[in-house]
Amino acid sequence: DEEVAWFEVISGAPVQWRVFHGPTALDVIRQLGDLVGRPTQPPSWAYRLWMAAQGGWADVLGEVSGLEDASIPVSAFWVQDWGGIRINPDGGFGVQYIWEADEVLYPDFAGGVADLHAAGYKFLTYANPFIVDPATVSEEDEPSRFAPRFDSMDEMGLLVKNQMGETYVDFVAPNIPQGNAHPDFSNPETVEFISELLREVVDTYDVDGWMADFGEWIPVDSVHGDGSDAIERRNTFPIDWQLANRTALEGARPDGDWVMFARSGFTGVQEVAQIHWLGDQDTNWTVLDGLPTVVPAMLNLGLAGQPFVTHDIAGFGRGTGPSDRELFQRWTELGAFTPIMRTHDGADKINNWRWNADEETTNHFRKFAYVHCALMDDFMSLASEAEQTGAPILRHLMLVFPNDRETWDISDQFLIGDSLLVAPVTEEGATSRSVYFPEGTWYDVWTGEAVQGGQRSTVDAPIGSPPVYSLDQDREDLRNWESLTYGDCR
Question: Does the global pTM surpass 0.85?
Fold first, then answer.
């Protein structure tokens, strides 16, 4: 029945089917994990606030100082331009696709990381699987920086070929002025080679992890060394890419004190993944790729056996215009009720709204940083359960109330565990919204007011008080977020 489910097959590779019988949806998720594996949970500090920072040491340290002065507790800073800034043809800022520090932008990179560690912060960077061809790099961007990695992998036969038997170099997007080759993961040596290079990043700079970006761009007409189907390889590429990242981080940090957050995946990635984020949402309110897409995407990840999720506050954007105050604040509210709360400066980093754009935004952001901190024990307890059973941290309502048919079609609300109901505001200008309450008595975490379940109701939802309800009448920890200290949340 196409109204229930449909499948499309475009590869010539065989299709394998497996049906899990449950009987409950949570049982199906557990059975899936038993077969394909489950992600391991990140360390405890990951459940506190991460902040994006970039632009060189002066800008990064200015961000650190500003957040400290505002008493906003942060556990980690992630710096995506650590390898350098790339100016794109459209005038936008990009990052250099290289796995070494730009000593002009970040002189004594290892020393700067050590200083932030001494101040109590974790430090994250950025990596992706593109192997930049130095022949396509402008003199200003120093082709010699890219030559060793490209030349070594090319000589060793670790890069995919085109139909003419040459190393496949393409331009992945019209605004990226450099040509990129792609690892050939059909060669077992490729994962080993990449993981060794990535491990050197940790060994050299002592960083605590990174964004493992991309993984979904392998050309569909590429030729792989073992003759395997290119479209099938496009599916499995994210698994190999994340395996290389995990191998590097586990080798450098066997105590597990590291994080990686990736965006691509396929069946089997669960076993090598840690955190997934939702990709580059637009900085707007559209149902195509804006704020309203965040909750459905997180729910789908949970149903697919990936419980550790995050997203960009307040979107990334690609020519969609800068974010504004309302969008930033509503996205912040949703971020606070997400296991990993993390900001992104976005593609238009100069014009996008920021946490310190005005006093109202700073106060709002501070509140929800502490609200997120108040949820840390919930997230960690649910993370332990997820690691064992695959049960999502953020749960579709029908997972907890399977006999309530009304919950099946709801994709704009979620539960944290079994008893905390979150209905974020994702409509521009809205100060109220319709909420469906499953059976039970639900208590507004901001006011304590009770609502009887089994019905849909329109509730007030001003900025600063998104609809959040608990079956536990004693969730005063969220209402009394101001009782938490800065030290509690660092």
Answer: yes
